[in-house]
Amino acid sequence: MRIAWPAATAPQGVTRYQVYRGETADFPAAPEHLLGSAAEPVYYDFDLEAGSQLYYRVQAMDAWGNVSAPSAALPVQAKAPTVRAEFVFHRRPDDDSLETPIEFDASGSRAAPGEIRQWRWDFGDGSTGEGAQISHRYVQPGQYQVTLRLETDLGAGGRLSKLVHINPTWVEKARGRGGLWLEAEDRSREGDGTSRVIGGRVNASGGIVSYWEKELGHWLEWDVQVATPGEYAIAVRYASGAAEALRDCLVNGKLPGPEWAKMLFPGTGGYSSQADNWSWRLLPGGKGAIRTCRLDAGVNTLRLINRGGGMALDAVLLVPAAMLKTAP
Length: 328
Prior knowledge:
The protein is mainly beta. It contains 1 helix and 27 strands.
């Protein structure tokens, strides 16, 4: 269902609108009623029961984070959907890349009445796209919720989400093509705290390093012997029972890019004490790309710094940039 409202203005500029939904006209614009946010003064609500009576409120937010008073409640009666979203996907073989290319096809979607005029994709990794048929490269292994949103020339909308699982097959490929493997427990130094090496975690490559979340600023550092100088990407195998963990990454004492300050590592559901909660993360650049860093011949240093949240660390893999097709 399409919900639209007049655009708001602010001296600092309006950056987004927060949309709330309730079942009574007097519902508050509170977090438990928050549906989501939109950059434009229009929002699509989905999966509604036909005939149900609903109410919506909107707040505008400016560039400084200030929010307006909530709008009056807008009464809406949900109608039966007129758009059926559908898509299929398959992997496209690409033996020369670390990334996993996926082809998405939404040509099976239908609308009656009207015609579909927009196909908008959210690939679940921060990247988006448009078109009935589109290809996307995933640079991180894991499970992603891909969402297709449709809009017709009559203003109707439809949505469908599916899970796409990306296996870390690139890890062994990278190790066989010049990647440098570091066991977490072989750290060279640490400071501003004391970590522990723990054995026996499920599917760990050896011992793991944990207990480095208590002191903010607690750092771990590894010396890396490099035979072939050049650009490298960095991948981390970790597990976390926290909602998220934040870490800085310094190479030879410097941040390779702003994205490596307070990097977000999503929770994995545990610390692999009873189940396999390990996840690989290639340290990111901007707009879904991978950032690389320069390593010189000889000894280089890699430092990870705790900025919040628990994390168990199993291994670090340095990947030659020649294996990457995404620009840093």
